[in-house]
Fold this sequence. Notes:
By secondary structure, the chain is of the alpha+beta class. 37% of the residues lie in helices and 28% in strands. Strand 6 and strand 7 form a beta hairpin.
Amino acid sequence: MNKIEKTALKAAQISAEKLKKIYKNFNRSDIKMKSAHEIVSYADLLSEKIIIAEIKKEFPNHHILSEEKGDNQKKSDYTWIIDPIDGTTNFTMKNPLWAISIGVLYKNELIFGLVYAPILNEIYKASKNKGAFLNNKKINVSKIKNKKVINTFCHGSSVKSIKKAVKYYTQQKLRNFDCRQLGSASIELAYVASGRIESITIPGAHSWDVSAGTILVREAGGKVTDFQNKKWNTKSEDLIASNKLVHSQIINTLKKI
């Protein structure tokens, strides 16, 4: 476990140093469209290349699933799930809310997660049954459940997911204190874990966007499920992560839409 953590952190830090230099002078005209609602940049591809190379040095036989490169198809009890830049749109517009996300599963169970937001200088880490930490200080979900609740949301690239997200946003925004989209699921999950916000809801959640953040929330005392209130796993299509106290309200809101 210690070797996994060290490898993930080293990979993220090496990548981050390259990305910070690119970020300062990035030109949005250099992006490419993966679909009508998804972009990719050379920064994503460079970050992914660096991270995968570092993992292969230490764990050449491990299974790796990454957003841009896809699945290396190796048979292993260990799976690394990587998003080289979660929040690419934020990155391209020089919004600091983007992160490197690395999650590790053992026999399909999340055992480690790292979310590194380089511009914020924040490193979130969690290991199974060992708690969640921000810059090596233990973190916990918030205890807010009434008028001060801040909900966030994100969505997959499909039209169906976007429509559901917009309906959810409308319900929460009109009826509660606030609901907003920060543009990086891993950071929003880290914010739930650290008590900065109360929830994130994602129709069409991709495993590489949320795996690392999921274990952060769980280890910080929160709850992570799909829209049917069943425990989230990497095959789940949707995700709700919360401080537990607002979870039922979110489930009820989703039922209405």
